[in-house]
Amino acid sequence: MPELAKSLQNVENKFLKTIGNNKIRLFNQEFSKYPGTIKLVVGEPDFNTPEHVKQAAIKSIQDNYSHYSPQKGFDSLRQAISNYLNSRYDLTYDPESEIIVTVGATEAIYLSVASIINVGDKVIIPTPAFSFYASTVKALGGVPVEVDVTDNDFKLNSQRLRDVIASEGEDNIKAVILNFPSNPTGVAYDQAEIEDLASVIRGKSIYVICDEIYSELVYDVKHVPFASVLPEQTILINGVSKSHSMTGYRIGYIAAPASFVAETDKLHAFTTTAATNAAQFGAEEALKNGLDDPIQTRKIYKQRRDYLVKELNDLGYPTLNPQGAFYVFPKIPKEFGLNSESFARKLAKDARVGVIPGSIFGKGGDSYFRISYAVPLDDLKEAIKRIKKFTEDFEHELA
Fold first, then answer.
1. What are the tens digits of pLDDT across the range 363-393?
2. CA-to-CA distance for 255 and 271, rounded, in angstroms?
3. Both 225 and 332 in a single domain?
4. Which tens digits make up the pLDDT trace of 168-217?
5. What is the C-alpha separation between 110 and 294, in angstroms, rounded?
6. What biological-process terms (Gene Ontology) are attached (predicted)?
């Protein structure tokens, strides 16, 4: 086993020291040591990829699509993405010059931030938010400006955004990252809310990086893309991971103005060259012939959501009713006197239920925990039984 040479111990990207490892995966690993734990941890659909999508991927292998695809992705997939965005949301993107197929939404987020910021530039992130956003900004030498929005039902509003831009200095801010429906809270923005935010950003030298990977998983509302109100400043990020249970296929995409895409494609070439061929053919099939695939999964997720929200509120864990994704974000009872990491560890040890501490998701998150309901309803019911007993026992201890 080679040890790193002493002469190399300080040869590193110093910004990587400012970020940690993926804590969601670390907690998932930690909770695995408790036998019988119901893990409501990972943000991944529990359904199989639709059969017709799998067959399209398999056929591409059998048809010997074994060489590099075009850098931005196969023409037919980019056309399918363009058609999907137009038919679903009335958005118009040229498949040749305004769309890049990426290795998941993860690469799309990285490319978007990397293409915009220089060292010291600031990026506004409403929190609680998926931790990858702030970590990416830090790793690239930028400064994440976390804005705690827990006091506004987990949403950024125009006045708060205006105040943050003024306090941080407009010239220092290069982007705002939005994610809706949200991980971890499940909140979504409606037409009026995004128009309100757009009115603050319009005309400023600020991008909106909008991660809409959960756009097909909305309940009781209609998803409204940010690009529908401010296309000239929006970098739209999406993919098929959540909508079609294709997380392992790693297909996302960027849709944005051509001048941005042209520059970003340079970095895409140096990081991944192109996405995997078979996965691209599967994604194309999903977007061409699988637009109805999410309908049934949405119904199942909604049933799980409705069950969890009621039960958690009844147990004394205040829980906002999420409008999308597959997460709930309950509040830890104040009388417990525990921060989110202590609470999550105690719940796993004493009740064999694994949840993610809210502190992982940035400012404002430490009073909360995240439950992924991308698990069967029977598991959720058993988890609630265990949480109920845990709560009763803990309250007895505190009495």
1. 999 999 999 999 999 999 999 999 999 999 9
2. 18
3. no
4. 999 999 999 999 999 999 999 999 999 999 999 999 999 999 999 999 99
5. 27
6. amino acid metabolic process
Query: Each residue of 36-86: pLDDT tens digit?
Result: 999 999 889 999 999 999 999 999 999 999 999 999 999 999 999 999 999
pTM of this prediction exceeds 0.85: yes
Domain with 347, as residue range(s), is 6-48+293-398
Which CATH number do you get for residue 132?
3.40.640.10
Q: What share of the chain is helix, strand, coil (3-state, %, to 5)?
A: 50, 15, 35
**What integer pLDDT is reported at residue 9 of this predicted model?**
87
In total, how many domains does the chain have? 2
- Residue with token string 């969601």: 24
Domain shared by 219 and 276, yes or no: yes
Tokens of 371: 């439950």
Q: Which among 46, 26, 47, 131 has a CA at the least distance from the CA of 348? A: 26
Q: Do 209 and 72 share a structural domain?
A: yes
